[in-house]
Amino acid sequence: MGVWRKWIFPSIRIVLAAVIAVALAKLAFFPDRAEDPQTAYPTGTVEEATTPVARGSIANDVVLTGTVNADTAVSVKATGNGTVDEVFAKVGQQVQAGDKLFDIKVVDQPEPITTTGPEGAPVITPPEPGHHFEKVFAPASGVLSSLDVLPGQPITVGQVSGKVAPPTFNVTASIAPALQYRLKQQPSEAQVEISGGPAPFACTGLAITTPLNGAGEGDGNGDGAAGAGAGTGGAATVTCRVPAEVRVFAGLAAQVTIAAGAAENVLIVPTTAVEGGAETGLVWLVDADGAHREQPVKLGLTDGSQVEIVEGLAEGDTVLQFVPGAPAVPEAACTTGPDGATVCMEGK
Q: How many domains does the structure of the chain reveal?
């Protein structure tokens, strides 16, 4: 029994440990299953996205967000120097343009009368002063919203003495400077749609105004201190008149659509392919061997996503879909898989 414990059992344990070690080594380094020779490996290539120059239609509609406003009240101004004589209207009254609101008693100072005295000396006789009345009329039709005059009150010519609020409305919207490039000609009207309001309507008398540099600046000291940083101007504003038959209210939100031209069967490319967005630009023309080079182009209408090519490219040309190195546009890459399918993804 001592022989088994001293020699045989330890020998068996050593043999079993060796068998287990060999088995583990075989599983780790010598698998039974041979590697499939058909296993697919990544073979795709990364290419810059391209787009063909094709013919299509383009509608240049500039869409803005605006607001309905009541037209500005018109000032009533005195027409003479004197005193208010009689007031013919009251605040809140409906008036028509040309209605008499009040009159002003203006004192007349005639020239002195010069005669010759008994000894030939001139004699100056001051005449009796006279007077006449200057009438002040409503400058527009509407509601007399204010009238700050009383009989006997002194008044001077040009003094604002009241306001007439017209019953008309307008729509205003801000337009970014870059969008003004899309307006090749000054439009005369816009299409306006009010959410929850009447059917879309033509808003006429369209005007685009930009505040002049320095307008409204200055602190009254004449030293220009309040105008520091002047020279940048302000945002341009689009304004048009709401037709009298359209019922609207001040403060309503409105969508303003300015139709600035349309073209059919013209050459177009994505705006992302063009460096520059108005009149002239650059594209990257792709040659047959895949090389690309800069190509100047003349631009026409754009709808914000497509742009018309007037000169510089021909139908069927291929250009890069994205301007190389443009920070605002994600770089696109296309991968061709083993089955020949191409997948394009925009980078982050």
A: 3
Contacts of 255 (CB under 8 A, 6+ apart): 63, 64, 65, 66, 192, 193, 194, 195
Helices first, then strands: H and E counts in the chain: 2, 25
- Cα-based distances in Å from 224 to 208, 211, 230, 232, 310: 28, 18, 10, 15, 47
CA dihedral 246, 247, 253, 257 (to 10 degrees): -10
Q: 6 lies in a domain? A: no
Please indicate whether residue 58 or residue 334 has the higher confidence score (pLDDT): 58
Rg over alpha carbons for the chain, rounded to the nearest Å, is 43
Residue finishing a domain among 149, 165, 181: 165
Supply the range of the domain harboring residue 178. Answer: 64-70+169-212+232-260
pLDDT-based confidence at residue 30 (cuts at 50, 70, 90): low
Closest CA to 163 of 186, 193, 138, 132: 138
**Three-state secondary structure readout of 223-261:** CCHHHCCCCCCCCEEEEEECCCCCCCCCCCEEEEEEEEE
Q: Are residues 187 and 250 in the same domain?
A: yes
To the question of pTM greater than 0.90 for the whole model, the response is no
What is the Cα–Cα distance from 336 to 346, expressed in whole angstroms?
A: 15
CB-CB contact of 337 with 327 (8 Å): no
What average pLDDT does the segment 214-228 reach? 50
In angstroms, the CA 42 to CA 336 distance is: 10
What does the alpha-carbon distance between residue 201 and residue 80 come to, in Å, rounded to a whole number?
A: 44
Closest by Cα among 106, 108, 109 to 82: 106
Q: Is residue 2 part of a domain?
A: no
Q: Report the C-alpha gap between 279 and 294 in whole angstroms.
A: 17
Which residue type is seen at 301? L
